[in-house]
Design a protein that fits this description.
alpha+beta, about 50% helix, about 210 residues, two-stranded antiparallel ribbon, five-stranded antiparallel sheet, single chain
Length: about 210
């Protein structure tokens, strides 16, 4: 009887520890999301607004993104925002280099669609351009064995409009083009990037 009670206690302790561990891992994972639950990451973003228990970009950057989404529709795949800290970790572009930014990427292991818009301080435009170009070169090396992703990075555009430095890497679903070769995938992605850049340039210059 004592043995049964002892093993029952041990089993309950095991279930309690396992449950706590799972909850801890879940909460840790949530901290890496750019759209974070209420109370997490609120101080990280300089241009976000709480919506329910989530956050989203607001202001001029939101208008630029909306314009791109209006043009591309379902072909705009980025869905997760980077905080200022995450942007600096990935690209080297730190908060002292800009007045405002939007950095959004596709939050899947296979996805690489991304749009980074940085309203750089006038004296930092060249530094932002350099860091984003270095980031692009790094991605080319990372994805050189993945044809679709390599094509998207190769087709990406880094364009400066006034003091906005734009890194556009879009294309959505190009799986059907892979059999036609790298050039076809690149050409299609370049077309999508140009569509996005065209509307961004019009909105910036007309603002």
């Amino acid at each position: 009887m004592k043995n049964k009670v002892f093993f029952s206690i041990i089993f309950c302790i095991f279930l309690f520890i396992t449950g706590c561990t799972d909850n801890y891992e879940k909460n840790q994972g949530d901290n890496h999301q750019a759209y974070v639950d209420e109370g997490n990451g609120q101080d990280d973003a300089i241009n976000t607004l709480q919506v329910g228990s989530k956050y989203r970009i607001v202001g001029p950057m939101d208008d630029l993104k909306d314009a791109v989404v209006d043009i591309l529709g379902d072909h705009y795949w980025p869905d997760t925002l980077l905080t200022a800290e995450e942007l600096a970790e990935r690209t080297g572009v730190s908060e002292n280099m800009y007045e405002d930014f939007l950095a959004e990427y596709q939050h899947t292991e296979a996805g690489i669609d991304m749009m980074i818009l940085v309203k750089a301080r006038p004296e930092e435009v060249e530094n932002v351009e350099r860091y984003l170009n270095e980031y692009r070169e790094m991605l080319l090396k990372i994805y050189e064995q993945q044809p679709q992703n390599e094509a998207k990075v190769f087709a990406s555009r880094i364009e400066t409009i006034d003091n906005y430095v734009c890194y556009i890497q879009l294309g959505a679903n190009i799986a059907s083009l892979e059999n036609q070769g790298k050039e076809e995938m690149i050409a299609y992605c370049q077309q999508e990037n140009e569509r996005a850049l065209d509307i961004i340039e019009k909105r910036i210059l007309n603002s």
